[in-house]
């Protein structure tokens, strides 16, 4: 049984955590309380993890492979490493 239930008419989705319900409710209200801090961007988001977007605006690529390819998102690096011929486990 889940303690947090969405009260939006016709929804009724349930969640174990209040923050999950809050995030879900923003799909109904379209609330976007997290603005991008990059000048002249103007975008805002419903979730606090907007660093991925800000890296798009700034061009920052902090995640690097041994082959020197760089990525703005950790997930993209992980996908690349599975295919990269220079990955650590391929060299053993």
TrEMBL record:
Xref: Gene3D superfamilies: Classic Zinc Finger
Domain of life where this protein originates: Eukaryota
The C2H2-type domain, residue ranges: 4-33, 34-62
SMART domains: ZnF_C2H2
Keyword Lipoprotein: no
PROSITE patterns assigned: ZINC_FINGER_C2H2_1 (PS00028), ZINC_FINGER_C2H2_2 (PS50157)
Membrane-spanning intervals of the chain: none
Entry keyword Zinc-finger: yes
Keyword set, alphabetical order: Metal-binding, Repeat, Zinc, Zinc-finger
InterPro entries: Znf_C2H2_sf, Znf_C2H2_type
GO molecular function annotation: DNA-binding transcription factor activity, RNA polymerase II-specific; RNA polymerase II cis-regulatory region sequence-specific DNA binding; zinc ion binding
UniProt protein name: C2H2-type domain-containing protein
Organism name: Trichodelitschia bisporula
